[in-house]
Amino acid sequence: MQAAPARSFAPFLAIVGSLISVNVGAAYAKGLFPLVGPAGITATRVGLASILLMAFWRPWRAPLARPDAINVVIYGVMLGMMNLLVYAAFARIPIGVVIAIEVIGPLAVVVLSSRHLRDFLWVGCAAFGLWLLAPTTAGAAALDPIGVAAAAGAGFCWAMYIVFGKRVSTLKGGHVVAWGMLVAALCTVPVGLAQAGSALFAPQVLLGGLMVALLSSILPYSLEMMALSRLPRRVFGILVSAGPAVGALAGFFVLGEVLTTTQWLAIGMIVVATAGSAATAGKN
User: Fold this and answer.
1) Separation of alpha carbons 79 and 73, rounded Å
2) Which residues contact 282 (CB under 8 A, 6 or more apart)?
3) First-to-final CA distance of the chain
4) What is the C-alpha separation between 43 and 107, in angstroms, rounded?
5) Which residue range or ranges hold the EamA domain (predicted)?
6) 174: number of Cβ within 10 Å
7) How would you write the pLDDT of the chain (284 residues) with one tens digit per residue?
8) CB neighbours (10 Å) of residue 35?
9) How far apart are CA 249 and CA 40, in angstroms?
10) How far, CA to CA in Å, does 32 sit from each of 46, 98, 150, 166?
11) 227 CB contacts (<8 Å, ≥6 apart)?
């Protein structure tokens, strides 16, 4: 009798665990940028995660059908580009602000798959929070335009990651994540090598990259794939939009990133929109 509610709550716990893990990993990764740059850390993180996942799951033992393989390739490309772009943004603006901009992607998924006016109202609340982050508003801190553009690009990739991740979520989750991470590695490792060269293979970089791979790739993406297989795409997109608050806290506690009052208010608006959307997601 009690097992069913626990199982129904498991996807939500998986998303919470994923958000905490990926944002703590992001804050730790930002501290490594001086060694090999954001693309170098991205390549190390994704490359090591790919090796570990392929070795653990050995997905080649269950070949994919052609349509599934195409979706997995797109899922992996979006995963790799999302990582490159978000780390490029992290290098220029605070983590919490980056994620607040990036959630445009999941919120777009909410809008495009919604049939209820209330969801558009919650998205409007989040949009107001994003507007507060714009440097044109009173009290807003100046933001690097390249960082903003990279964060917005990461948001598009995040939306596509959700869309195509949902399409392949009915397959074996571990196999999908392993194949997707391999494709992501093929996208990111050449860029990282071009930026950092042989410095990527320094012991300090490899050890740090391994930690980031565990925190920001292997654990969160596996948890998200489990959640995607049990939640509607729209609900998943709503819940992961809580990322800005978690990212801001991770940036504050791990890196000492201090946000302005306006930036905290903006992030708060996005969190309120997320909580409201999640609270009403299952209602008619």
Assistant:
1) 10
2) 235
3) 26
4) 28
5) 146-275
6) 16
7) 455 555 667 888 888 899 999 999 999 999 999 999 999 999 999 999 999 999 999 999 988 999 999 999 999 999 999 999 999 999 999 998 998 888 888 777 777 776 677 777 887 888 888 888 876 655 556 789 999 999 999 999 989 998 998 898 888 878 998 999 999 999 999 999 999 999 999 999 999 999 999 999 889 988 888 888 888 766 776 677 778 888 998 999 999 998 888 889 988 888 787 667 666 655 65
8) 17
9) 25
10) 15, 18, 19, 32
11) 11, 12, 14, 15, 18, 236, 239
Rg (CA), the chain: 18
At 56, which amino acid appears? F
Q: What are 46's two structure tokens?
A: 């994704």
- Gap between the Cα atoms of 192 and 268, Å rounded: 34
User: In 3-state terms, what secondary structure has residue 2?
Assistant: coil
113 three-state secondary structure = coil
